[in-house]
Amino acid sequence: MPAEMASRSQGPSILEGSHFGRFGGIFVPETIMPPLLEVAEAYGSARRDPEFGKRLEALLRDYVGRPTPLYFCGRLTEHCGGAKIYLKREDLCHTGSHKLNNAVGQALLAQRMGRTKLMAETGAGQHGVAAATVAALFDMECDIYMGEEDVRRQALNVYRMRLLDAQVIEVTSGSRTLKDAINEAFRVWMATAETTYYLFGTAAGPHPYPTMVRDFQSVVGREARQQILEQEGRLPDCLVACVGGGSNAIGLFHPFLEDDVRMMGVEAAGRGLRTGEHAASLTAGSEGVLHGARTKILQTAEGQIRTTHSVAAGLDYPGVGPEHALLQNTGRAEYVGATDEEALDAFEMLNRLEGIMPALESAHAVAHAMRVAAESHQEAVVLVNLSGRGDKDVGEVQRVLAERTP
Amino acid sequence: MSRIGACFDELGRKEQGALVVFTVAGHPTPALSSELLVAIAEAGADIIELGIPFSDPLADGPAIQAASQRALAEHMTPARVLELAAGFRAARDVPLVLMTCYNPVYQFGLEEFAEASAGAGVDGVIVTDLPPEEADDWAGIARKRGIDTIFLLSPNSPAARVKKVVDLAGGFVYCVSRLGVTGARPELPTDLAQLVARIRGETTKPIAVGFGVSRPEHVAEVCRVADGAVVGSAVVSLIDRQAGSAGPAEAVGAFVRELKAATRSERVTKPDPL
Ligand SMILES: Cc1ncc(COP(=O)(O)O)c(C=O)c1O
């Protein structure tokens, strides 16, 4: 824990873990402070309650379908001609992505807090589907905020949310993507927090979300660590995960922090970092405050938030979780970009060689893992978080590939 | 004593509430915005809040979001807002408060922003997403430059937070009338008097109520229990409606005069602290 924390005046339990070195924090309007502190307090007490842990574990096993497999990609490995590539199959979670790990945990917390309604933001719609799913499971109402642009490109998930009886609220402000959905969700929550739990979908935002979401997603890394030890008899050389807000990446990385394992986060380089049309907050951004946290963001010299671009809606976000900003600063993790094109190529490759259709977000991780593997010797092991499956992206991929100049 | 403190003292002696008027700097255009500031002061506003437009304001409703977008499209930057402030200060003596989200200030540099604000004759700063938990750096720097950092309290702020916020508050305590974002409302919340009383129990500092205060009747009602009323979205919307007209300043001035008149209606005087 950073020294600065100890001197903060609120009790250690509520603000515990609120800062990651100089990053993180709780930069929000006063009206959101009391509900956030209430969530922080409730989470602090839940995490010390063995009963809560048992319920979460049972749901992860029986409902989410954990543990998910760790799969060795024989053909992809052969194709790259270097390191062995393993996929942590979060795409095989119920609802099709890692997002449900967090949604189940926070829904349990919402129930514990006596809330009767959930709200969530979503980009790719995977978190929206996860939130709508747990709302059905826990018999709660559910409102999902989604940018108009994402509603268009993730139509399948919008329909899934509606089937799950959630309300999908189209956000038309700003760039009409994830950033704006988060703005709108916080604005609404200011007036509704007494009855409604805000189920935030990634390891970003104000305290306590970066810590809480990381904790709920760390099951990915814990399982992967044990599985690779069983299958390879040793730890991997390198972990690779895509980074939107950073939840699947921090979930994979966290249990390996003390190990001698390289960690690489892959951001959306969009049309190329030099074009300015990307969503690479860590690789191309600078320090700033967005959505309640001090972190790396994409901004103008005057501190206005830039619009972003990625073919993957779930990565199309100008900020990133504060713990990644710290891991980058200390050099413990490295962050790189993969372009739309590289992600699309990896999307096709994984389909053809392994019969696995990754989410476009996850395809960014696969793209970079293929590069790393190709440059490594054959005894090396690369472990990739395949954060989600790509059914939701089929329409968009079809459209984008058709537009590709031959 | 700061210009803001002196303003509340004098109004207290005159048994008037303070009329605080908010506009977005650069809205609808930088030139009109500067003209409007003078008109608003001329029409009797006791304190002016000038918003630095930000692309992603969490606490603002549609009217102020749209005005901010419009000002940004007019290339309004924090540096230009400070120029606007300095221009106003050269012409008028009315207390001036900048209202902003943290990131534009953070990018400007805290020291630099405080220095430039003081240089421009700015009296106070409200950073809407900087709660006391994160405000140490800024508040210390602002204090050295003689700038009041104004903090917000909300109907859901528990007693311990009320105490903490009023202790830190410079200038006045900004009491948010209801849960939610800024925006004009037809009516004030019914429990406003209790909310103000709850804050009053912890401090002798002036209390101004904002969010949803949009009509002269609201101002009168607020000034019966608090020391000032903040009108934002209603003024911003009026500026929007008048932006195309020959003289928006005239219509805005007339509205501000009506609002100011309402602060002079009968009010319950502030209970003696001891
Ligand atoms: C499959 C998948 N992977 C990754 C992400 C990016 O989020 P995060 O960085 O929080 O894992 C998303 C977000 O929507 C997603 O749907």
- Which band does the percent of strand residues of chain A land in? 15-25%
Radius of gyration of chain A: 20 Å
What is the fold-level CATH name, i.e. the topology of chain B?
TIM Barrel
Ranges of chain A with pLDDT <50 over ≥5 residues? 1-11
Structure, described:
The complex is a heterodimer of chains A (406) and B (274). Chain A is α/β, with parallel strands linked by helices and 406 residues long. Helices cover 46% and strands 18% of the residues of chain A. Chain A contains 17 helices and 14 strands. The model of chain A is unreliable at 1-11 (pLDDT under 50). A 9-stranded parallel β-sheet of chain B has the order 5-4-3-2-1-9-8-7-6. Chain B is an alpha/beta fold and 274 residues long. The mean pLDDT of chain B is 95. The two termini of chain B are 21 Å apart. Chain B has one domain: TIM Barrel (Alpha-Beta Barrel). The site of pyridoxal-5'-phosphate has 21 residues of chain A, from α7, α12 and α16.
Sequence-ordered SSE layout with sheet pairings:
The complex is a heterodimer of chains A (406) and B (274).
Chain A: H1 3-6, H2 12-15, E1 19-20, E2 23-27, H3 33-47, H4 50-64, E3 70-72, H5 74-80, E4 84-89, H6 99-112, E5 117-122, H7 126-137, E6 141-147, H8 148-153, H9 155-163, E7 167-171, H10 178-192, E8 196-198, H11 209-232, E9 238-242, H12 247-253, E10 262-270, H13 281-284, E11 286-290, E12 292-297, H14 322-330, E13 334-339, H15 340-354, H16 360-375, E14 381-386, H17 394-403
Parallel strand pairs in A: 4-14, 5-6, 5-8, 6-7, 9-10, 9-14, 10-13
Antiparallel strand pairs in A: 1-2, 2-12, 3-4, 11-12
Helix pairs in contact in A: 4-6, 5-15, 6-7, 6-11, 7-9, 11-12, 15-16
Chain B: H1 3-13, E1 18-24, H2 30-42, E2 47-51, H3 62-73, H4 78-91, E3 96-100, H5 102-108, H6 110-119, E4 124-127, H7 136-144, E5 148-149, E6 152-153, H8 159-168, E7 173-176, H9 192-200, E8 207-210, H10 216-225, E9 228-231, H11 233-242, H12 248-262
Parallel strand pairs in B: 1-2, 1-9, 2-3, 3-4, 4-5, 6-7, 7-8, 8-9
Bound molecules: pyridoxal-5'-phosphate.
